[in-house]
Amino acid sequence: MKKKILVVDDSAPILELSTTMLKLLGYEPIGVSCGMDALKLLAQETPALALLDVMLPDMDGFKICRHIKQTLATADMPVFMVSAKKTGEDVEQGRKAGADEYITKPFKSAEVAKLIKDYLGNDR
């Protein structure tokens, strides 16, 4: 069974790019465009990893990350923040929320693919 990866981004082109990349890598992406949809999904499923945008229309990615890390079923899930916000302060806020990685946009697909593989191993 393919590993599921949650992708949360309110930019339709980035959401499409990310989900296409993950499909090509052999994963099953689950794409949502807002925080509430992400939280609803996490109540029903436990993906292997999450890629979270920071700036979302209803809540920021840091809040979703904290929810993931504070919930027993998902506490060990690797979380990558993916954001155009790239100051040291932003990165630090991501770390404090529990993010395992902080990737700045625009990102290179190959770098993200390598990080995912580093965290999830060769099994897809």
Structural commentary:
With 124 residues, the chain is an alpha/beta fold. The chain has a single domain, classed as Rossmann fold (3-Layer(aba) Sandwich). It is built from five helices and five strands. The longest helix is centred in the N-terminal third of the chain and has 13 residues, at 12-24. The chain is globular, with a radius of gyration of 13 Å.
General shape? globular
Widest β-sheet, arrangement of strands: 2-1-3-4-5
Class of secondary structure makeup: alpha/beta
The domain tally reads 1
So, CATH architecture? 3-Layer(aba) Sandwich
CATH class: Alpha Beta
CATH topological fold name: Rossmann fold
In percent terms, what proportion of residues is strand? 15-25%
Distance between the termini: 8 Å
- Using only C-alpha atoms, the radius of gyration works out to 13 Å
Topology, number of strands? 5
Helix content estimate: 40-55%
| Annotation field: number of helices | 5
Largest sheet: 5 strands, parallel
User: What are the low-pLDDT stretches, counting only 5+ consecutive residues below 50?
Assistant: none
Please write the string of helix (H) and strand (E) elements.
EHEHEHEHEH
Give the overall average pLDDT.
93
> CATH-wise, what's the superfamily?
Response regulator
